[in-house]
Amino acid sequence: MIYTDVNMLIDGAWTKGTGGDEPIFNPATGEVIGRTPHASAADLDRALDAAERGFREWSGMSPHARQQVMEGAARNLEARKVEIAAWCTLEMGKPLAESMAEMDFVIGVIRWCGEEGRRAYGRVIPGRAADHQYLALVEPVGPACGFAAWNFPGTNVIRKIAHALGAGCSMLLKPSEETPATAMGIAAAFHDAGVPAGALQIVFGNPPEVSSHLLASPILKKVSVTGSIPVGKLLVKQAADTLKRTTMELGGHAPVMIFADADVEEAAKMFGGAKFRNAGQVCVSPTRFLVEEAVYPQFVEALTAFAESQVVGNGMDAATTMGPLVAERRIDVMQALVDDAVAHGARVTTGGHRIGNVGSFYAPTVLADVPDTAAIMNEEPFGPLAPVSPVSGPDEMFARANRLNVGLAAFAYTKDAGIAARLRREVRAGMTGINTAMISLPETPFGGVDHSGYGHEGGIEGLAAYQQTRLVAERL
Ligand code: NAD
Q1: Which of 125, 131, 250, 468 is the one with CA 20 to 30 A from 176?
Q2: In the prediction, which pLDDT does 1 show?
């Protein structure tokens, strides 16, 4: 399968821009497979101007007409998903089956947002005087911009595009420069379905320069960010001067609470599968495994066996279940976390090393007896490392699960109704999976609490993030 020539989409036209470019690497081979064009300040100004015009045209269409365009984009993607999924694997490394599943999710999000965008109902509030009525009107907030991380080149991108377009906003998006083709392929599906010029635009560039330029503009009324906590904080500050609305989808460090009554084999497969999916480069990845002492040795053994069953290789090979890390730079981060854990008394039960010296492959790794003082119990590893630690009982479990100031996802395995009730009440996380790792659908709200960010993508909350309420009072 062949990679593609990457362009930006500005004011309805494909362009290389005038800001230079940078190489795109295939992380499985280390080869340069293309170049990501960069927007200059002048290109960004053109895009800002078009974002305003695009907003006027798109928001002026009926929700039904907008839904028809979005359905056209979904159909285009159905026809093109095999090709775009291959680009995703080539630029990012994940196994082709995961890229294909991601494209199906992308299509599902477009359809859901297109349909739900037709239900921006508002309400009529009766007046206190008989001849008055009050209309609470729901309308799009205006031209919006987004910044997206590389780890889900399709999902992170569509969550910005589809919620904005579904709500009637224009979206000026800067996806990751490391995974541009997937974003471009998705944008092309909308472009070819007839989305007006400027209603959807894709730019790349020097990230701090692009963000400071766009966020200083009064044209844009909203910014949505999927990325790391430090970048999220920076962009919130940049958005403050123009008082833009902000949605922050930031990093996590999900606790996985394995209680004494757990089916250990099933829990190890379920959460191990979620752990090594996308080589652990998932914001809601199961991260620190807290296991009640009664089942601790069995769980460590089962998770180790599961890790060893992974087939690590080039994501384009059908047998591969785990691909490389996104880039060479991530290998050193993994090794430093493993070495630090070992220095704090952890045991490596499997993995703990790089694989080969071509491509950025790191072995699926299980670390047992990891104390909370080790760096990996506090910093998001964003890789295939599973630290496991014994826990004396439920009270310690809840205290340790809530120990950090991030709260994106949390997972647990128990059939005990009392513990499940405590999980619903006490866990500080935006999303909790009890006996399941499947916490995200197009129709469910996705988002964190505390330093994992605020606001949602997905569900009616995802559309509400791009809508505002306006009151009209009428004397009849
Ligand atoms: P990142 O913060 O480096 O980049 C995110 C986006 O911001 C990219 O478009 C990037 O180019 C841009 N950016 C980077 N540095 C910037 C700067 N100084 N100024 C302006 N823009 C900048 O994140 P990443 O390394 O690409 O992704 C990994 C992080 O994303 C992890 O922390 C992960 O948990 C998080 N993430 C969160 C979610 C979620 O929904 N909560 C989903 C996926 C990933």
Answers
A1: 468
A2: 59
CATH topology agreement for domains 8-250+452-475 and 254-441: no
Superfamily of domain 254-441: Aldehyde Dehydrogenase; Chain A, domain 2 (3.40.309.10)
pTM of the model: 0.97
Digit-coded pLDDT (tens) for 241-291: 999 999 999 999 999 999 999 999 999 999 999 999 999 999 999 999 999
* 474, 136 contact by CB (below 8 A): no
Out of 202, 215, 283, mutate this one to test ligand 1's pocket (max ligand atoms within 8 Å of CB): namely: 283
Between the CA of 382 and the centroid of ligand 1 the distance, in Å, is 12
Task: Mark the ranges of the chain whose per-residue pLDDT is less than 70.
Answer: 1
> Which of 24, 147, 156, 204 is the pocket-test mutation for ligand 1 (most atoms within 8 Å of CB)?
147
CATH superfamily of the 8-250+452-475 domain? Aldehyde Dehydrogenase; Chain A, domain 1 (3.40.605.10)
Rounded Cα distance between 144 and 161, Å, is 10
Backbone angles phi and psi of 124, in degrees to 5: -110, 125
